[in-house]
Amino acid sequence: MRKKNNPHSFHIPVMGLAFTIDSPIKVAKYGISSVVSIVDDVLIEKMNEYYSSKFEIPFKAISTKVEDYRAKRITSYLNTVDTIVKHKFETLKKSFEEKSSEFEKYMDMLPDFSEVKQNFLETIQNNHLKKDISNWIQNNLMPGAIDVNIMTKLDKDNYNKNELLPSEFNDAHAALRGFANSNLESSVVLSAGMNPRLYSYFEKFNDFYPDENGFQKKKIILKVSDYRSALIQGKFLAKKGLWVSEYRIESGLNCGGHAFASDGYLMGPILEEFKNHKNDLISDVHNILIAALNHKGKSIPNVPLELKITAQGGVGTSEEHEFLLDNYNIDSVGWGTPFLLVPEASTVDKQTIDTLKVAKEKDLFLSNISPLGVPFNSLRGNTNEILKNERIANNKAGSSCPKKFLASNKDFSEKVICTASKKFQTMKLNELKDECLTSDEYSKKSSQITDKACLCEGLSNAALINYNLDQKGEDQGVAICPGPNMAYFSKELSLKEMINHIYGKANVIATNNRPHMFIKELSMYVDYFSNKVDELKDSLNSKNEKYLTTFQSNLNDGIEYYQDLFSNFEVNKENLLNDLQHLKNKLFNVHIPILVKI
Questions:
Q1: Which of 131, 145, 202, 378 has the fewest beta carbons closer than 10 A?
Q2: Domain-by-domain residue ranges, the chain?
Q3: Could you read off the pLDDT of 16-63 as tens digits, one per residue?
């Protein structure tokens, strides 16, 4: 059954550091929810100053010498965004009498099945008094959510000079505090896996606990890749009296940004499991929650708390959008990558947009550039890559690393340093010189070291370029991390054009060769598996052998699920089944080496 409690059936996920940093200011007034990254407090401080000046909001700079400056910067910016969104939304509601008004644009972009849209048309037909219509607008229109994202792994220790600060001053902890202390009534999206210490820190903030009516000022969204992970994390938080309001299922590989590959579990079967076990998930976790709230002496909600299931990663057509909503009963579909070509919704510099527009499948690839050591979706020819390669050619590999948000390596000191930094790469390259390596071996190993890129700067620079904000230090260019779906979108789009595409009122994809999102993901996993076999064949042990065998088996189970699913399709059934058979043959042509037991 189609859910109708939100104005739209899609949301814009977090993208990079800059690409959705101000998306709520651009789209929330139209009822569109989006997610802001709160990793980079340096960028956030600059954006706060920019928008405060633009909307004549009092601004007071927060120096790095101020105690708890990171959290305070984040709180201040989120409050600024909240103020601007509320002002824009009130202005929009008052504009309904004007022709070509923002109010008209709000209504026009809603899907036809929207309960809000249907009720408004009914109100117009039944009421002739402007006052009645105005009252309806005030009571029924809602802006999109101003949600925030914290990547749980980005939680490095911080120091005051050489003194280690308490854990609440760690990066992710401070970001959470910045959100918790803000005026927002929205959600924090936690990505990149479980961080028990950070999860426990949520207990400090009353806004995350429900009242007797089930109201939570601030909610928790978990980005997950499978049902088991959702259940484990949901129970962990429930034992602390904390409810997960939404599980956001993302494809392991068919997505943008960091790619956290599953062990061969595919999106379709994962969504099916959530659909079949949603009620079990609610009841199991809810019982734990009530016991914990009771133990803490907190309010016990009179009604079961709401639980949403959403999905994102690789969706690109209205047919796929509708299928996800209807077949899996999900509440919203995340559309990320295509919105990088929509300046009305995201913040991307012109040179990068031009590179995105002409990108083909070969230009969108999983790279090893992330200092976190996690595969990272990259765009060939981005300015960050060009500048990095120029420095390597001039024997000046590495970044000056002013922000250190991705610092995690302790090979050379107790304090973490970033593997993309000049300091780290210089020491690693010097170590190589002491090894007796052939030129080919040296070239291969040195490339693995210098391949790491400065993503802290690269993923934030687009906003500085777009708004002509001060850029200090060494130029790192713009790194961008679209999913492979970008290959099928080839022009800059208006917000209305993109939404019409999502809801099937128009088609902005020129090519007829775009694979179904499930086929594309499976294809990526088969390639990933093949590469893993090559990677592990010379160091095979029983653990690796079991991993590869399980991976292949899980992919085969997914293929069998899709064979049943696609057999019931009315459109394009034969092509989909042929694609599946081709990928199954390809999968089992990859032979796992047999471990010789002595």
A1: 131
A2: 10-341, 384-479, 515-598
A3: 999 999 999 999 999 999 999 999 999 999 999 999 999 999 999 999
